[in-house]
Amino acid sequence: MLAPDERPEGTIRVHFSDNTYKTLRLTYETSVSEVVEDLCKRLSVGGRHVEPERHQLFIIAPGSQALRERRLLRDDKPLEIQVKGGSKAFKFLIREVREEVVVEQAGEGSEEAIEGQHVASTEKQVTESLPVPVADVSSTLKTGPLERLLEDGTWYACTAILDTDHLWYSHEPCGVEGGRGGGMACLLLFECDHVQECDDKLSLQVLSKGVTMQFKARSSQERNNWIVAIANQAALLKERNILLQANRIIAGVEQQRSSQHAARLEAFGKLEGLLGASETREMFLDFVKRDYEAVVQWQAAVAAGEQLRQGGNDTKDCADSCANSATASASQASGSWPKGLELQDLLACLKKGEPGRREGAAWDFAEAQLL
Predict the structure, then answer these.
(1) pTM here?
(2) Could you tell me which residues come within 8 angstroms of residue 41 by beta carbon, excluding any fewer than 6 positions away?
(3) Burial tier of 173 (Cβ tally within 10 Å: 0-12, 13-18, 19+)
(4) 187 beta partners
(5) Tens digit of each residue's pLDDT (9 = 90 or more) over 143-179
């Protein structure tokens, strides 16, 4: 993966589906494609052949399930992504990617009742990378009656609603008749630090940004259901934000790379930019040499044709042949070279790094006629 003269600039740890991993030494320019090919080569032992085309590299949030992931593109740079996102923010996973298979379960009993909602059960086995899943924002995850503990130590009955991003609860009664005029308040699940059970079998505590709120359910089973639902959704949101952060990092890296490519392409429109890259400089210098040779051949053919025409009618056919040769040479040349400008002088002018070479007739000719 690294050339003999390349030195590694960092390491990444790539996990496999069985939770084993390999530590790879990379440079910032090492691509996902190179990582996948190297790992597949290591796995191809004992007559087993592992195809790189059927494997993909993913980033997943620590402890997330299989679908909370993002597939990296083949030209992404894993070490660069890890440095920008932090080695503990996510981990790399390589696995085989098969064709998508969708199996729908239908028929009697295919609907499952979840907290008062009827949701059709659909089983999907998708190995291709999918968007980070969250609960359906158009539905409520859980709702039901609870009691909330106030600061004065009294309890009041409230309605609690858990959706994808919030835990809603109704305010305490207000007014003499106990009417509800305060509406609903909420806790942001992303800010939820911990959900735990209390000493009694009915209460639960929600810790969010240093604030502790205590609720009481009607049964211990209902209390446990609320704890699991709140904790799972809060963890899912945090993992989603980690992956969104990784997406932003990758998008920033890709934007920076595309901007660099665009700047290089724009620089190639000028002679200085064309000579700044070794590959384009060698191509341009080779073109200059061939153009000079074509001009020399054209000048020699023109001179020979003039001499033959001065020799009389017997040499007319030879003169026409020289004229055709001169035309062919002229078609390969970009234009007439300035008088007195030799190839070596122009090459010396174009040589990279010499001060004062970017001025004068030679440089102007190369930029105006040869570029």
Answers:
(1) 0.41
(2) 50
(3) middle
(4) 167
(5) 899 999 998 899 999 989 998 888 988 877 655 444 4
